[in-house]
Each structure stands twice: as structure tokens, then as C-alpha cells.
Amino acid sequence: MAKEITKEYTNGELTVVWKAHKCIHSEICVKTLPKVYDPKARPWIKPENASTKELQNQISKCPSGALTYYMNGEKPMEESTVPTADCRVDVLENGPLMVTGTITVVDKDGNETLKENKSFLCRCGASSNKPYCDGAHKKIEFKG
């Protein structure tokens, strides 16, 4: 199992939390706020380069949930562990299926994994981490 790296970056008012293992490299963060997110720089996230509102708006668009935030002085939000009846599946153009809500994934051997918040399921067939998306659709230029 890959090491689950989590890093935090603050602008003094808000703390951006980045969970590397959840990132599907959609690049929405980089395209939305390039002055904050620069994958070639260290640190790669500079929240001081945007307003708190800009950060909140951008982070809410992160399709994988790799980026979250909490307001400084408040307890970080915990991810929900209670399954909900609400579940939504969105087909992302030229990409995976985005499942929002809590789901149970059962593998071919009957092993169950509870997935919460957002999950991205491979639609192109090229992922080396099936049934989950690993971004391989970009490499093979999947269209659909």
C-alpha cells in the first residue's frame, strides 16, 4: 500500500489540506488558481497568493477530494463515516466516473471497501488500480 501523504498549507485564516493519495491530477486547481498551485515549485501550494474566498471556491471544485480546508482556530472537518442513501454518479468528459456519496465496493473475492465522499471509477480500462481511476485515461487519450 502506498504511503498516504497529507500536507497542510495556511494563509493565516484558512488551512489547505492536501492528501496526495487521493489526487487524480485533474489539474483543476492549477488551471483555476495558478498563482497558488504550481506543481514545479516547493512548496507547490502557496495559499497566501489568493483570498480565502478564492481558495474556498477552488477547493470545492476538487473532483477527488484531495484538497480540503478548514478555518484556522476551528477543528478540521472529519470525513463522514456514516453511509448515506444519497449517491450520485457523474460521467466526466474523457475521464472516469465520479461517484459522490458513500458506497461499498466489493472486489472479485468478496472483500468490501467503504468509500466515502468522492470516488473515481475507471471508465477507459487502462487503470492499473481498477476499479479506481489512476489518471491513465490521459496517457491513452481516452475520449468518451
What's the quick description here?
The chain is of the alpha+beta class.
Class of secondary structure makeup: alpha+beta
Radius of gyration: 16 Å
What is the global morphology? globular
Number of strands: 8
Detail the poorly predicted runs.
79-84
Oligomer: single chain
Descriptive account of the structure:
By secondary structure, the chain is of the alpha+beta class. 12% of the residues lie in helices and 26% in strands. It has a three-stranded antiparallel β-sheet, with helices on one face. A three-stranded antiparallel β-sheet has the order 4-5-8, with no helix packed on it. β6 (103-106) and β7 (112-115) form a beta hairpin.
Topology:
Elements: E1 6-10, E2 14-19, H1 28-32, H2 52-59, E3 67-71, E4 87-91, E5 97-101, E6 103-106, E7 112-115, E8 118-121, H3 136-139
Antiparallel strand pairs: 1-2, 2-3, 4-5, 5-8, 6-7
Descriptive tags:
about 25% strand, about 140 residues, alpha+beta, single chain, globular, 8 strands, three-stranded antiparallel sheet, 3 helices
